[in-house]
Amino acid sequence: MDFLMFQLVQESKTPLYEQLYRAIKEAIINGTIEEGIKLPSKRKLADYLAVSQTTIEFAYSQLVAEGFISSEPRRGYFVQNLEELAIIEQDTSFITQEANNTPNFSVDFSPGKIDTDSFPFAIWRKYAKDIVHDDNKDLLQLGHPQGDYELRQQISSYLFQSRGVKSTPEQIILGSGTEQIMPLIIQLLGDKTVYGFENPGYPLTHHLFFKDSRMSVPIPVDNDGVIVAKLEQTFANVMYVTPSHQFPTGAVLSATRRSQLLAWAYHQDNRYIIEDDYDSEFRYTGKPIPSLQGIDQNERVIYLSTFSKSLMPSLRIAYAVLPKSLILQYKKRFSYYSATVPRMDQHILANFMEEGYFAKHLNRMRKIYKRKLEIITKTIMEYEPTVTISGEQAGMHILLTIRTTKTETELVKLAEQSNIRIYGLLEYTSAELDDKMNPRLVLGFGGLKTEQVVSSIHQLMHALEITKAP
């Protein structure tokens, strides 16, 4: 594995996955890594370079997308012939990814996990049985390119009632996850668009935007959300934000910043805001915070969300509400596309929502997640002031700030050695942060069993060598 011994600089403004991607790409081009060589698995390379598997996954995914390597099921990643690169690039979207080699952790604080024990399987099975029927043979055919009207109608009604989003079913597009909808939005907004995105922020957007560094710029975040004054100093004309519960810090975009951000968008005709409302259903303190789209008077907000947190990640249904001007462009340019969400899944969900079970499920899950958060908060208090919590107003993850001489990387490694998965905040940064703060860890609690929350926190603290306050 010596041919992959690259020097990755933790303090660099360039994220680790981009450093690794560039290093491997250069080595392939100059012949240091020869055609046909098998690259190590994500787990092995992560251990070898002392980085997270997420870093390796993003680097490999980009190399696959550009055709420098290929992923062969059950075999691994292999370096490709550069002379065939153009052909490979055409086919990369159809290449099956390597089987998941991620180990099973005894405690998993991943922010993407949900409470699977509380899913209403019996009700969902009933609607699935009703849909899979001879009377619904038409669902075997391709449906509307934007998704079937029945589900778009339910989403439009739900968004208005719960988030104040103003929309018609005609403005909604469905896709199989954010990673499928975002590229469509990027194409729709044009090649000359410069994107601003939160730093730290959602890794998927980093992955989508860093392909052309001239087209994107990280904007720092503080306790009030994205710093609009920093955005105004850039050439960005589209800003991607998670205002209701910033990922991963948990900050809520303040009322002042919301006004500033909308004013920034109104200042020029070609400016838009992409509002990712990924977990707004779960708010535990104060009144619900209205969506940016709901208070937008000039139709400059593109609203984006999914059912991954509210129902299940594997459902792979995301949606966007496009301003009227953009939906007209979308229909002209992408009307020949086929919907990427299976129609039977669409109708199961539409019926589930229409009969009120989606709202009931959310109410139940809100209570369950709130209870888990209360237990975590109470347990963490035993370790104050060494450990403090922020971002607990909403969502299914919080941020832990650790007063210690250890680095974030060292803390994450200590947790891994105790078979505990947790992520450091630096995993989500795309440029060097301005401040030199104590290590911060992103603690997802959605997937923890309620009865195991206390022991899981104590196990984590023990692994991090943190003792209770005297």
Note the topology:
Layout: H1 16-29, E1 38-39, H2 42-49, H3 53-65, E2 69-72, E3 76-79, H4 85-91, E4 107-108, H5 121-131, H6 149-163, E5 172-175, H7 178-189, E6 195-199, H8 203-209, E7 216-222, E8 225-226, H9 228-231, E9 238-241, H10 255-266, E10 272-276, H11 292-295, E11 301-306, E12 318-321, H12 324-334, H13 343-354, H14 357-380, E13 387-390, E14 397-402, H15 408-417, E15 420-421, E16 423-424, E17 440-444, H16 453-463
Parallel strand pairs: 4-15, 6-7, 6-9, 9-10, 10-11
Antiparallel strand pairs: 1-3, 2-3, 5-12, 7-8, 11-12, 13-14, 14-17, 16-17
Q: Share of helix among residues?
A: 25-40%
**Weakly predicted, low-confidence segments:** 86-100
Gyration radius over CA: 23 Å
User: How many extended strands?
Assistant: 17
Mean of all residue-level pLDDT scores = 87
What's the assembly state of these chains?
single chain
Q: Helix/strand-derived class?
A: alpha/beta
Strand content: 5-15%
The tally of helices reads 16
Q: What overall form do the CA principal axes indicate?
A: globular
The end-to-end distance, rounded to whole angstroms, is 47 Å
Q: Main beta sheet: strand number and arrangement? A: 8 strands, mixed
User: Order of strands across the widest beta sheet?
Assistant: 5-12-11-10-9-6-7-8
